[in-house]
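Q: My labmate handed me this sequence with no annotations at all. I'd like to see what the chain might look like in three dimensions before we decide whether it's worth expressing. Could you predict it?
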Amino acid sequence: MRLPMNITSLINKEIKIEQMDGHLFQRVVYDFARKVNGKVNDWFPPSYPLNYFCIDIEIGDTVVSILLHEFFPYAAIASYINEFQIQFLDYKNLMLELNPYYTVLGAAFLNEHFNPNIHDLSDSELKIVRHWRPNTNGEIIFNFWN
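A: Here is what I predict for the chain of 146 residues:
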């Protein structure tokens, strides 16, 4: 998969990109939590400098976070401590639940080393990437430095 231009949320002001529907995201995740007798623990929308929505679900003894990019329909499942400590996971049942609404990115791709030569980032995005030095595709997509 090639990462598209503006994925870092460093968006050219001349381009009009709509924010993802946070209410739909909440509804989908809350529905899943009910199906698996889980509990939604926390929810926060994108807020500078974070470029993603995040919902934490407790399922039994496990807490997983679902991330949704602010402008692109890209979702991920993670063990989320804070924006500096995100471990991307594959959680098959949850991935299947999210798939009708979003492109759920797998842990292998998200944890893969970021190679700027195989993606479509703009020059201004590449400049900020060189400054912040993210290591993985996941750190490019779900970031806190836009």
